[in-house]
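F.,

This is the one I mentioned.
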């Protein structure tokens, strides 16, 4: 049996993880245009870590208060809740005396310390945390595929209906405020979609691919110097292709899936870099 025949015969194994990867890659690539242009590329790392605080808190409730998962908040729902609140707060803060990177960095450091302290109080559930945080694109349950699909659908609806307002507030905040636009509302809408997309994708794919898909496809699209609307479409397409191509390359090459996806995503930077070199 050839490698291709073996791959097709194992469809039940790779079908769900591949679909989840494609959805996550396209969604994160699209949202990454905002992240890159707003110069908050490390927000994904901070929100991933904050969502981990939610996971630790949920495990602590189960272990110390004997709260069963099926009767309490689902672990992923807990992570999303923490990430959404943090995203709204970080998205709404525009400090005048500190750069945005300082605020994001402080959030990441604080969340990291909280995770370490929380894990130190876990006895039986600590071994479950690694799989929850780092994900596994090779084995994604159907339930998590549907969660990613629902989040992707919500993000698409929000940004299709209100893209003009979100873009205006994101890239010309002072003018929008001067014209009486409710900047807090549209900043919150963007932050909400990021807060939902990051933990849902990280749970399935892992933190490294999420950070890469929020950065590399958008950067590749923007390097081509196209219009902003086209950049959004290209970034989503690049994210989808990097996720799908990386998954297939890891299957046939027997390499780590997450790292292979990141490597494929990085390849999309080459056309823009070459074009920029030619243009001088």
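My design for it:
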């Amino acid at each position: 049996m050839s490698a291709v025949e073996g791959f097709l015969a194992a469809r039940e194994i790779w079908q769900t993880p591949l679909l989840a990867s494609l959805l996550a890659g396209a969604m994160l690539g699209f949202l990454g245009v905002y992240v890159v242009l707003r110069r908050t590329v490390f927000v994904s790392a901070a929100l991933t870590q904050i969502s981990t605080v939610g996971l630790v808190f949920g495990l602590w409730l189960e272990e110390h208060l004997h709260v069963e998962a099926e009767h309490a908040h689902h672990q992923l729902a807990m992570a999303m809740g923490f990430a959404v609140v943090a995203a709204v707060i970080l998205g709404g803060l525009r400090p005048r005396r500190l750069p945005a990177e300082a605020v994001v960095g402080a959030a990441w450091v604080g969340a990291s310390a909280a995770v370490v302290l929380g894990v130190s109080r876990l006895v039986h559930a600590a071994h479950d945390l690694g799989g929850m945080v780092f994900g596994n694109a090779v084995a994604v349950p159907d339930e998590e595929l549907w969660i990613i699909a629902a989040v992707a659908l919500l993000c698409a609806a929000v940004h299709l209906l209100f893209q003009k307002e979100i873009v205006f507030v994101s890239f010309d905040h002072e003018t929008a405020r001067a014209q009486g636009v409710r900047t807090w509302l549209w900043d919150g809408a963007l932050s909400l979609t990021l807060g939902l997309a990051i933990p849902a994708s990280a749970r399935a794919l892992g933190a490294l691919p999420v950070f890469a898909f929020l950065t590399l496809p958008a950067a590749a699209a923007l390097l081509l110097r196209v219009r902003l609307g086209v950049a959004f479409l290209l970034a989503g397409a690049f994210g989808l292709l990097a996720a799908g191509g990386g998954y297939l390359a890891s299957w046939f090459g027997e390499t780590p899936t997450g790292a292979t996806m990141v490597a494929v995503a990085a390849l999309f930077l080459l056309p823009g870099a070459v074009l920029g070199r030619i243009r001088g």
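DSSP finds 14 helices and no strands in the chain.

Talk soon.
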